[in-house]
Amino acid sequence: MAGELHLVVNGRRALARVAPRLAGDTVMVPARAAVESCGGTVEYLPGPPARVVIMLGGSRSEAVVGENQATAGTRLVPLPAPPVIVEDTMLVPAEVLRPLGIEVEVAEPARACLCGCRDSRLRGRRIFLDPGHGGSDPGAIGPGGTREAAVTLDVAQQTARLLGMAGAVTSLSRTSDRKVSLERRLAAAETRRTEVFLSIHANSFTDQRARGTETYYYETWESQKLASAVQQELVEELGLADRGVKEASYYVLRHARMPACLTELAFLSSPDEEALLADAWFRLRAALALFRGIRTFMDSAAARLA
Ligand SMILES: [Zn+2]
After folding, report:
1. Which of 34, 78, 138, 210 is the most exposed place for a label (fewest CB within 10 A)?
2. Would you tell me the crossing angle of helices 221-238 and 280-305 to the nearest 10 degrees?
């Protein structure tokens, strides 16, 4: 159906029998799939009129099928479109979920509906994302012309968006196609008192048959742990060959004074993997994996400090 979107909840692809969709400018979200992944409950009351009662973290929203307003606690919330039932699934506009602390955003061109809630593992944590290359340095260029610098920037920006929805404080070494020296990238991370440094790249090799995902760290146990968490999520999410976690003395890893890793998502020199990297939904899935890897690492780091 036209207007259907992929559903992402809390950094994971979520299965919903009925996909989220755009109705004009309004995002209609399958209530149960979005809310339950955030730890809330959805009660469907068949009516008539059919209603949905959503509870999350002590907050309550209620919406009625066909009505242009909902209630959040005792407050009335005007809705741009009424909730509808499609194949036994209640779709509600994002405005019903926001008062409960569930942010809803549409990621274009990946055509994904991102639902996220604050996450205690990430809230206030300072994370630095470093999209490799840029400007006069395009990085690797695939046989079809895909440029590494464009791939890394998009993946970094999507990752930052997911982290931001969860409450993390993210910074990027660049937000446009421009050249930034490695020294300046690290200096920016230091200035922002970054807790984690993640450099994003795409691989290249003379043999087009080389393929898969690999992640690098340098020396410290903490960085190795970060690299492992990121690699594991990437392999699970993207399903490419697992080339493992490796130690290497790359400049940004060697000089980073915080846990740091550098990931090579896939091989731009492989025509198959280039086609994947050129696809916006695949890049968003890479961002989901990076988000989850960082979240896992932060959780273990927090547990260690406690
Ligand atoms: Zn690179």
Report:
1. 78
2. 140
Q: Which residues fall within 8 angstroms of residue 63, CB to CB, at 6 or more apart? A: 51, 52, 54, 70, 71, 79, 83, 92, 96
In angstroms, what is the span from residue 37 Cα to ligand 1's centroid?
Answer: 35
Q: State the distance from the centre of ligand 1 to the C-alpha of 5, rounded, in angstroms.
A: 31
Active-site residue, selected from the candidate residues 214, 264, 273, 274: 264
| 264 counts as catalytic | yes
Question: What's the pTM value of the predicted model, to 2 decimals?
Answer: 0.94
* 264: number of Cβ within 10 Å: 24
Question: Which is it for strands 59-64 and 51-56: parallel, antiparallel or unpaired?
Answer: antiparallel
CA of 133 from ligand 1 middle (Å) equals 6
- How remote is the C-alpha of 141 from its chain's centroid? 25
Q: Could you tell me if 78 and 69 are in contact, meaning their C-beta atoms sit under 8 angstroms apart? A: yes
User: Tell me: the pLDDT tens digits for 127-180?
Assistant: 999 999 999 999 999 999 999 999 999 999 999 999 999 999 999 999 999 999
**What does the pLDDT look like over 57-83, one tens digit per residue?**
889 999 999 999 999 988 999 999 999
